[in-house]
Amino acid sequence: MDFGWIWEFIRRILRQLAGCPTGTLSITPASGPSGTDVTVTVTGLRPGDPVTVQIPPGTTGGSADAQGTYSYTIRIFDEPRAVPITAITGQGLCEDKLRGTFTVTA
Q: How many secondary structure helices (H) and strands (E) does the chain include?
């Protein structure tokens, strides 16, 4: 029997009680040809929250600014496919993983 949903439910309640922020990931543009400059932005964080961005094959990171925003721009060279992008925000109980994709069109 899978009880993973119970842990996730409890985790969400604990995050709310702890006042953890709920970040939002945006990827601009959402698609384009190989060589496109892509901006990954995370908003809704607390100032200074750590952010790690994973875009295969590498990782970068930093901290949210005074407005609770972190932004990173990278030129993506890849074959046509959906490139997974993950932003890991916060730490401890407040750690969260935000996921999105950039689609390389040609």
A: 1, 8
Q: Which residue has the tokens 């908003």?
A: 43
The amino acid sitting at 22 is: T
Q: How far apart are CA 4 and CA 52, in angstroms?
A: 25
Question: pTM of the prediction?
Answer: 0.86
Buried/exposed 39-67: b ≥16 CB within 10 Å, e otherwise: ebebebbeeebebebbbeeeeeeeebeee
> Which whole number is the average pLDDT over 4-32?
89
Is residue 65 helix, strand or coil?
A: coil
Confidence at 1, pLDDT banded by 50, 70, 90: low
Give the model's pLDDT for residue 3: 78
Domains and CATH numbers, the chain: 4-104 (2.60.40.1930)
Q: pLDDT value at position 10?
A: 87
Whether 91 contacts 61, CB under 8 Å: no
Q: Give the whole-angstrom CA distance, residue 42 versus residue 30.
A: 15
